[in-house]
Structure formats: C-alpha cells, structure tokens
C-alpha cells in the first residue's frame, strides 16, 4: 500500500473538519477524493503531506509515518496545493529551478518526468508565473511538484478554475504519470472527473460516504433515474416535488433528475400528472446513472 489512513480526525477549534477517515491507496493507483467545498479534502492532504497534525488516528505514506517520519515523507512526495502556490514574481524557469534546488536536484536530472508537460510551457519560460493563464499555472505547478521525482503525488483540486480543454489535457497527463509508476491522490469537486480515477472516495462534511471504483459505484446503484424536461423548468421542479411517490428531484444540466420510490411507478401516469399541472413539451426518459446521482442520494 502506498497510502494508509486509519481513523484520522482533525478539528479546527470547534469545527470537525474530518471525522475518523480511513482509506488505502495502492501503489501506482490513481485515487480520487470527490466532494464539494468544505468536505475536508484539503485537511486530508495537509495531514498526509505532514503540514498538519491530526488530533486522532494514524497514517503512512510510502511506508513512512506522517508524524515520526515527516522528513522522509517530504522528500518522497510531491504536493500541488489547491491555491496557486508558486512564486508569482519569479519566471516559469526560475520557479522550476527554485523547487529543484530546494530538493537538492536539478531540472536536467528528472527532465524526462516533466518533459511532456514542460514542453507546453517552455515558450513562456521567461514570463512571470503571476502573468500565466490558469491552465499554464497548473502545468507549472505540476512540474514543480514533480521535479524531485516523487513516489506519491498529492493534487488538491488541480482543475478547479481551469477551462474544459485544459482540464481534459490535465487528466491525460495524470494517466501518463501513473504509467510511470507514480501513485496519485487527487481531489476534485467535479463529479464528471470521478470516472477518470481507478477508485474514488465520496466525501461529505468530513466523512467518507463510499469507497469503490466509479464503475462499481454506478453498477451497484439500484434506483432508476428519469431524465425529465418541460418548457417551464421551474414549474416542472415544483410539480415533481409535489408528486406523491417522489424520492428525489434535482436539476442536472438541461434535465431534471427524478427518482421515484413506488414499485408500481409508471412514467405515463407521471406524464399525465404533469400535463394536468399545465406543463408543456414534456419529455421523460430513463437516464444513465452518474456519480453525481449516487452522491446526491447518499
Ligand atoms: P475542502 O478542501 O474539501 O474544501 P477543507 O479541508 O478545506 O475542505 O475544510 C473542511 C472544513 O474545515 C470546512 O468546514 C472548513 O471551513 C474548515 N476549515 C478548514 N481550514 C480551517 C482553518 N484553518 N480554521 C478553521 N476552520 C477550517
């Protein structure tokens, strides 16, 4: 196991940020912590990268204990924090050199590892980091986190605030790094990114709701989700919420996701009900379950 977390809890004054969290990440695995703002993701990262001491529990990273062996951990992991962490007034190249130097290495020594990524920002190597676009900053931050060839990579919301094309490229880079044997723990509030991980932990308010592969989480979900549309979306939501056997109703892209809790549910009855409430252009179809559906239910 590359990461072992056992019953870790952490409070800030009276706020319990994480509550008895346990999970394991295998060597070479791409593991995702999926949850909204405030779920406790950053607290987990800071504990595992030895920047924060937990109140309870224990954890090891690459075989090292997060309390006793903090020096060894700092040398063997790469950490890309959620907030842009680089020196804004240093250039791209200076940032990278700086990180290489403090880890006692050089850009050349581990160039192979960052080459694919660095090539994309090299044309801007004399530009100050503060003047880079979101996607470029993220690539530079990733290079800096990788420059000492870490065994384990911690990426806290690396794609937040990044455009969709750069987000896609970023995940492709992660897959390539994984192939090089690096274990990756990544967090994201974007449920659509969850399916790109080998396994995920769904996390909410400091607790883990579920851990499994995204495929299993979807496969094991036993409720049918109806995707419903009508001309007046707001009216549709209100009417669905009033339907006697409704289990859940939430907006998802252009459709409303609707789950019913009656074993005798019939979409034609629902259609008639909605028509009676003066909804028009009604469309009801069975949709594919997404991680977001499971998360909302949990
Ligand atoms: P996430 O990364 O998922 O957004 P965090 O770990 O940052 O979650 O936060 C978890 C909870 O702990 C939140 O309720 C947050 O407000 C609280 N919290 C985080 N850092 C601090 C801090 N330094 N002082 C007080 N409360 C904090």
TrEMBL record:
Keywords: ATP-binding, Nucleotide-binding
Source organism, top-level taxon: Bacteria
UniProt-recorded name of the protein: ABC transporter ATP-binding protein
GO molecular function, one term: ATP hydrolysis activity
Pfam families the record matches: ABC_tran (PF00005)
SMART domains reported in the protein's UniProt record: AAA (SM00382)
Coiled coil: none
Record carries keyword Repressor: no
All residue ranges annotated as the ABC transporter domain in the record: 3-230
CDD domains in the record: ABC_DR_subfamily_A
SUPFAM superfamilies: P-loop containing nucleoside triphosphate hydrolases
InterPro entries documented for this protein: AAA+_ATPase, ABC_transporter-like_ATP-bd, ABC_transporter-like_CS, P-loop_NTPase
């Amino acid at each position: 196991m590359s990461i072992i977390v056992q019953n870790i809890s952490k409070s800030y004054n009276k706020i319990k940020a994480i509550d008895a969290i346990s999970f394991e990440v295998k060597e070479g695995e791409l593991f995702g912590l999926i949850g909204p703002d405030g779920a406790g993701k950053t607290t987990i990262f800071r504990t595992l990268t030895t920047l924060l001491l937990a109140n309870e529990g224990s954890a090891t990273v690459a075989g090292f204990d997060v309390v006793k062996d903090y020096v060894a951990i700092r040398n063997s992991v790469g950490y890309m924090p959620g907030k842009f962490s680089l020196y804004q007034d240093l250039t791209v190249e200076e940032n990278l050199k700086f990180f290489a130097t403090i880890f006692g290495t050089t850009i050349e020594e581990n160039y192979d590892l960052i080459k694919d990524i660095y090539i994309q920002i090299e044309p801007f190597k004399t530009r100050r980091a503060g003047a880079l676009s979101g996607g470029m900053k993220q690539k530079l931050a990733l290079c800096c986190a990788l420059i000492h060839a870490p065994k384990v990579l911690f990426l806290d919301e690396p794609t937040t605030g990044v455009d969709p094309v750069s987000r896609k490229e970023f995940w492709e880079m992660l897959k390539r790094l994984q192939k090089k044997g690096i274990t990756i723990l990544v967090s994201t509030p974007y449920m659509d990114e969850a399916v790109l991980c080998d396994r995920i932990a769904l996390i909410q308010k400091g607790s883990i709701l579920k851990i499994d592969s995204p495929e299993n989480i979807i496969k094991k979900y036993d409720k049918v989700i109806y995707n419903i549309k009508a001309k007046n979306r707001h009216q549709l939501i209100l009417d669905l919420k009033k339907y006697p056997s409704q289990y859940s109703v939430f907006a998802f892209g252009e459709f409303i996701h609707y789950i019913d809790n009656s074993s005798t549910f019939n979409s034609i009855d629902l259609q008639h009900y909605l028509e009676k409430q003066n909804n028009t252009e009604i469309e009801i179809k069975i949709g594919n379950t997404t991680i977001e559906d499971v998360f909302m239910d949990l």
